[in-house]
Structures are given as structure tokens and as C-alpha cells.
């Protein structure tokens, strides 16, 4: 074989002093099979972050901002309400920096996320599914107040959007510096990604259209109804437009304070609803036809990007955020049709040769 044809790597040319130094600089990858031929469609694969999701950025941003301000003391316990990815990111960051971490999360979130946080050494306090994200949030506040812990406040802290302005936005601008970028597509959980990246794109690439998506069954922004908050910016109660949905990590039952900047500043050009079933199908298609593993939120964002691509003018360039990996959805409906045992096709293949057959008991 010609050695010139063998894929090789050269290394990064440096070593890292901490796993936290590897957060960010995630790749923008072209979609080759699923995308319509008349457009260029890319995905920003946030699962390349060490904790497996875009929320690693938020986690390091909040903790280091609190360290600089003195709000977080050495050895102090950190607590946060989370649907999972922020909790995993904070558990990783706190483990690396030596802070105990406690997460509160509703029982509706996938079991993998609880186990991941506990594997990092965190404690996970479960709250009733019926109380939704607001119940989970208020439990975190109770525990923080009762114990003198540092509340991360991902839904309110300015550090959330700021870290995306200084990392995610700059990466996108650099990656597409010599190319068109007609559309950037994202969903929202806290709103930090859209608010922070939009700051950078509005300044550096004002022609780029920003598409924001939310679940079809929970169109909080589309309702036009403002969120009732207390003086600290925290939600007082659930938003009236919310109904439960399957896109974990997206659209809690309130409009976060961090997201309000994107609303007030008109940071998105179009609001696009998406059905979770379409998102799950697109996540499966990405895995099976592009080799890219993402979760329900990533699949849902990609579904919106594909809709946009279908109607776009020739030569259009689209970038879609993929917030996390699919592995933390193994117990969710995303993997409902994936069996642990051999299916009929696999059994037929196994029996097509005589040896090494499983017994009925195995």
C-alpha cells in the first residue's frame, strides 16, 4: 500500500495541563449524504467537548466567573438544577477543580445522566416529574439557602451567554472566515448559546440569518406571553404555553432570563417549531447515514436545518448546532427500536454458518 494514501495524524503539538483546557474548539463537519445537493450543510459537533455536550462551555464559564468574583469559595459545594447536560458538565468541572457538586433534576430525565453525574462524584437529588423544571429549580434554591452552597444559576447568570460569545461564536466566525454562512440553526435550553453566539454573529457576520427552534408542543416564545419572574430573574411559575415534550435539554417550562436578551435584541430572524418525532428520526439518520451520533435535541435542530436546506437557494451554506452525544439517551425513546439481543436479520446471519451458535439460555 502506498504510504501516502494511509490516513495519519500529527498530534496537536502541545499537551494540556487539565481536561478543562480541552473544552471548546469543536469541529464543524460537512453533511455529505443527507444534505440536498444544491446546498452546503454543516453541523457543529459539541459532543467533542470532554463532557460530551455544549454545556461544558457553560459549566467552565460559570465556575471560573464565580472564582474571579469571589462568589465561589475554595472547597464550597456547588449546586444546580439541571436536565442533565449542564449537570454532567458541572460535575466534570467541579471534579477537576476540587468542588463538591450537587444536582437537582426531575425524574423525567434519562437515567444515563444521573449515573454520569454520580460517576463524576456528584450527588443527584431527584424531584417529582409533575413539578417540571421549576420544581427542580426551586429545590436547588432551597438546598443552597439552607446549606450556604453556591448556586450556579445557569438560567440567570450573564456568564452563560458570555462564554458562548468568547468561544462558540469565535470558533464559528473563524471556521467560516473564507466562506459564506447564510444560516445558523440552534435550539434553546437556557438561551446562552443563542444569546452569546448571536452577539458575535451580529457584529462579524450580520448577513447570517439566525434560526431558533422550540418544540412544537411547547412554543413558549411563539406564544408572545412574557415570563413572570422574581427580582432575581428566576421564574415564579411555569409558562402557560408549556406542555411536556420529549426533547430533553430544550425549552424548560419557563423562559429563562438568559434567553430574554435574544428576545429583546431580536437576535433570531425566524422561530421554527419542530416535532420531537422528527428530531428522533433525524438523529437516527445522522447516525446511520453520516456516522454522526447526537441526541434528540441535536436531531431536532438538524430537522430544522434540513427543512431550511430543502427550500434554500443554490449555494446556500448552513451551520447547525448538535448539542450533545446520543449515548446519554439509551434509555429514552430515541433508542426504543434498538434491541440488546439479536434481531431476526442478525439471527439469520449467525445461523448461515455452523459454528459458534448461542444456546437458548445465552
Overview of the molecule:
Helix 1 (55-69) packs across helix 2, helix 1 (55-69) crosses helix 5 (158-166) and helix 10 (276-290) crosses helix 11 (296-311). By secondary structure, the protein is an alpha/beta fold. It has helices at 55-69, 85-97, 111-119, 132-147, 158-166, 168-175, 192-204, 220-223, 257-264, 276-290, 296-311, 344-351; strands spanning 28-30, 40-45, 78-81, 101-106, 123-127, 150-151, 183-186, 209-215, 270-274, 317-322. The longest helix has 16 residues, at 132-147. The relative contact order is 0.14. The protein has a 6-stranded mixed beta sheet, sandwiched between helices. Helix content is 37%, strand content 13%. The mean pLDDT is 95. The chain folds into 2 domains: 12-49 and 167-335, 3-Layer(aba) Sandwich (Rossmann fold); 55-151, Rossmann fold. It contains 12 helices and 10 strands.
User: What is the C-level CATH assignment of the largest domain?
Assistant: Alpha Beta
SS-derived structural category: alpha/beta
- Helix content estimate: 25-40%
Order of the strands making up the biggest sheet: 1-2-10-7-8-9
Radius of gyration: 21 Å
Rough outline: globular
Strand content: 5-15%
Question: In total, how many beta strands?
Answer: 10
Largest sheet features: 6 strands, mixed
Number of helices: 12
Distance between the termini: 42 Å
- The helix/strand order is EEHEHEHEHEHHEHEHHEHHEH
Query: Which CATH architecture of the largest domain would you pick?
Result: 3-Layer(aba) Sandwich
What's the number of structural domains? 2
Low-confidence stretches: none
Q: What is the fold named in CATH at topology level of the largest domain? A: Rossmann fold
- Estimate the mean pLDDT confidence: 95
Amino acid at each position: 500500500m502506498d504510504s501516502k494514501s494511509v490516513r495519519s495524524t500529527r498530534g496537536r503539538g502541545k499537551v494540556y495541563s487539565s481536561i478543562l483546557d480541552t473544552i471548546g474548539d469543536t469541529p464543524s463537519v460537512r453533511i455529505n449524504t443527507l444534505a440536498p445537493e444544491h446546498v452546503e450543510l454543516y453541523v457543529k459537533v459539541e459532543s467533542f467537548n470532554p463532557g460530551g455536550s455544549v454545556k461544558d462551555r457553560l459549566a467552565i464559564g460559570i465556575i471560573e466567573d464565580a472564582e474571579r468574583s469571589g462568589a465561589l469559595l475554595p472547597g464550597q459545594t456547588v449546586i444546580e438544577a439541571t436536565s442533565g447536560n449542564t449537570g454532567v458538565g458541572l460535575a466534570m468541572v467541579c471534579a477537576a477543580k476540587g468542588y463538591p457538586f450537587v444536582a437537582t433534576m426531575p425524574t423525567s430525565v434519562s437515567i444515563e445522566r444521573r449515573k454520569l453525574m454520580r460517576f463524576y462524584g456528584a450527588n443527584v437529588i431527584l424531584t417529582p416529574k409533575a413539578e417540571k423544571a421549576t420544581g427542580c429549580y426551586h429545590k436547588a434554591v432551597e438546598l443552597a439557602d439552607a446549606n450556604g452552597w453556591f448556586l450556579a444559576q445557569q438560567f440567570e447568570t450573564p456568564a452563560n451567554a458570555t462564554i458562548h460569545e468568547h468561544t462558540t461564536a469565535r470558533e464559528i466566525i473563524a471556521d467560516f472566515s473564507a466562506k459564506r454562512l447564510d444560516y445558523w440553526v440552534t435550539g434553546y435550553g437556557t438561551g446562552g448559546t443563542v444569546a452569546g453566539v448571536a452577539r458575535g454573529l451580529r457584529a462579524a457576520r450580520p448577513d447570517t440569518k439566525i434560526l431558533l427552534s422550540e418544540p412544537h408542543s411547547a412554543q413558549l416564545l411563539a406564544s408572545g406571553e412574557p415570563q413572570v419572574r422574581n427580582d432575581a430573574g428566576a421564574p415564579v411559575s411555569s409558562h402557560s404555553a408549556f406542555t411536556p415534550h420529549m426533547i430533553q435539554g430544550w425549552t424548560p417550562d419557563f423562559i429563562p432570563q438568559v434567553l430574554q436578551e435574544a428576545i429583546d435584541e431580536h437576535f433570531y430572524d425566524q422561530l421554527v417549531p419542530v416535532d420531537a418525532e422528527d428530531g428522533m428520526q433525524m438523529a437516527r439518520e445522522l447516525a446511520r447515514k453520516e456516522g454522526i451520533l447526537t441526541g434528540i435535541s441535536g436531531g431536532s435542530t438538524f430537522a430544522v436545518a434540513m427543512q431550511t436546506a430543502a427550500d434554500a437557494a443554490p449555494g446556500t451554506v448552513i451551520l447547525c448546532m448538535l448539542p450533545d452525544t446520543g449515548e446519554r439517551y439509551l434509555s429514552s425513546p430515541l433508542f426504543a427500536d434498538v434491541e440488546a439481543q439479536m434481531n431476526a436479520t442478525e439471527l439469520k446471519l449467525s445461523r448461515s454458518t455452523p459454528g459458534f451458535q448461542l444456546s437458548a439460555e445465552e
